[in-house]
Design goal:
Elements lengths: L19 E2 L12 E2 L3 H9 L6 E2 L12 E8 L5 H18 L4 E4 L5 E6 L6 H18 L4 E2 L11 E4 L9 E2 L15 E2 L1 H4 L13 H7 L16 H13 L6
Parallel strand pairs: 7-8
Antiparallel strand pairs: 1-2, 3-9, 4-6, 4-8, 5-6, 5-10
Helix pairs in contact: 3-6
């Protein structure tokens, strides 16, 4: 599901076979959203010069309850590739400690996306609050690597882990989407074991992404779709850990 505004005089979606206009009531006071969920619809988007595809954290079936949360690792000036990879491993380690299994993909740009599938039990506000707590914990415990506030000056030599992607209506570039930037990078799903072998933040682009997908083995995200994790236990563990690490406590 993507959001977008198309500038046609009449019936904009009629010009895009396969693309469905969704019920405007799903997101009141906004332009109607559209769904690109078939091969024909994807080709229609290409025909209209669509390059990037971004998706919500929720589906039409239960738009108020996200089924994933996303941590966007956005490296600041001076962060090299080894530090970025270390940052990804540290985020994974914290999530593992909280009892959450995570998957990773390149962003198609300079960062990494770490994705956690969850059960559809919590509102976007609750999911965003939890992800903010995770990021603030990272910034507090490993300040040499992470910062919890955005802004280029704040993250010089450090990584801003963007939790704002988890707010209502926020989107993240879809896996396998091309990025509309120099080099036409592609956001690519990878396995955690592949992170060590990356020789660039975004080694895949329109020129080699298809070959890579043809030659790689099993899908590193094949178990993602069967995973629906709870945030209740992880939230309690995170709160307890934050309390233990408060200044003045031993």
């Amino acid at each position: 599901m993507i959001t977008g505004k198309l500038f046609f005089q009449k019936h904009p979606f009629a010009a895009m076979p396969g693309v469905r206009e969704l019920d405007a009531a799903l997101w009141p006071d906004h332009e109607p959203m559209m769904a690109i969920d078939t091969h024909q619809a994807l080709l229609s988007a290409v025909q209209m010069n669509v390059i990037e595809l971004h998706t919500w954290n929720a589906t039409v079936r239960n738009i108020g309850r996200p089924d994933r949360l996303v941590f966007d690792l956005d490296p600041g000036e001076g962060v090299d590739l080894p530090m970025l990879k270390d940052g990804g491993r540290l985020v994974r380690a914290l999530l593992d400690e909280l009892g959450l299994t995570s998957w990773i993909k390149t962003s198609g740009g300079k960062g990494l996306h770490i994705v956690v599938p969850i059960a559809r039990r919590w509102s976007a506000e609750q999911v965003k609050a939890f992800s903010k707590d995770v990021v603030e914990h990272l910034a507090r415990v490993v300040p040499s690597h992470f910062v919890a506030k955005s802004g280029p000056s704040r993250r010089v030599g450090r990584i801003f882990v963007d939790y704002l992607r988890n707010g209502e209506g926020q989107t993240t570039v879809s896996a396998f989407s091309v990025r509309a930037r120099p080099g036409l990078g592609v956001s690519m799903t990878i396995g955690w074991d592949e992170l060590d072998r990356l020789d660039a933040p975004s080694p895949w682009h329109v020129g080699n992404a298809r070959d890579h997908l043809s030659l790689r083995g099993p899908d590193p995200w094949q178990d993602y779709w069967q995973s629906r994790q709870s945030l209740t236990g992880p939230a309690k563990k995170l709160a307890a850990s934050a309390d233990e690490n408060r200044p003045g406590r031993r």
